[in-house]
Amino acid sequence: MINNEELDLLEIIHKLRKKKFFLMSCALIPAIIAMIVSFLIPKKYISSTTFLAPEVATGGNIIQTPFGGFSTSGFGEDVISSQALMALLKSDEMIEDVIKQFNLAEKLNIKKKRALIDFIKKEMTSIELLSNEGVIEISVETHSPEMSKAIVEFYLSNLEKLNTKFKLTTQNPLVKIISPPYLPEKKSFPKTKINMAMAFLAGLTLGLLYIYFKEKLN
């Protein structure tokens, strides 16, 4: 014997089958639009490098000393701390050198110096201390795979230059790279497949809601 719930479910399935072409249109059209838009908008590429935190590179651990930004390795060699190295990487002077080297004020069309520095720090670069892994990672995202790689390489070379300028440590080389900068082959943005899937689900949901409210009003 078929109960009311089973009858309601069969009725819903029957109505959805009648509207299958409408639902497919609701889902596929947004997905196709998302695909086209993803192909048209400017692409971005990420290049990154990873190097050992200074303390780890000399056989120690990542620690923050209460007396400043420097620590001493177990081998009697003065070593710049990870915190001090991070500060140097994120400093305005480092960013200004990047801007001059790659003429970013003109390429990004941002005339105000402070706004340009903030944009590069927040939108283009990511500098993280992964303390659990004992490494520091620099990532750069631009519209050119070659430029992304070149900027990451410049960070590394300019780090040595700034260390010489400020005489922070005699450690040489300053960092020990374990993953060198690479030329990205795949774009990091936009995520075409994810955009299409989200548009497909959104369109399908809206189609189902339209059918539901239409049935309720009738």
Describe this structure in words.
The protein is α+β, with helices and mostly antiparallel strands and 218 residues long. It folds into two domains: 135 residues, Alpha-Beta Plaits (2-Layer Sandwich); 30 residues. Helices cover 57% and strands 14% of the residues. It has nine helices and six strands, in the order ααβαββααααββαβα. Strands 4-5-1-6 form a four-stranded antiparallel sheet. It has a two-stranded antiparallel sheet with strand order 2-3. A hairpin with a 5-residue loop joins β2 and β3. α2 packs antiparallel against α9. It is elongated and about 80 Å long. The two termini are 29 Å apart. About 4% of the residues have low confidence.
Furnish the topology, listing elements before pairings:
Blueprint: H1 4-18, H2 20-40, E1 45-52, H3 54-57, E2 70-72, E3 78-80, H4 82-89, H5 92-102, H6 104-108, H7 113-124, E4 125-130, E5 135-142, H8 145-166, E6 177-179, H9 192-217
Antiparallel strand pairs: 1-5, 1-6, 2-3, 4-5
Mean pLDDT, to the nearest integer, reads 86
Q: Architecture of the largest domain in CATH?
A: 2-Layer Sandwich
Helix segment tally: 9
Shape: elongated
**Residue windows where pLDDT falls under 50 for at least 5 positions:** 64-72
> What distance lies between the first and last C-alpha atoms, to the nearest angstrom?
29 Å
Q: H/E series, N to C?
A: HHEHEEHHHHEEHEH
Q: Using the coordinates shown, work out and report the CATH topology of the largest domain.
A: Alpha-Beta Plaits
CATH class of the largest domain: Alpha Beta
Q: How many distinct folded domains?
A: 2
**Helical content (DSSP H or I, runs of 4+):** 55-70%
Percent of residues in beta strands:
5-15%
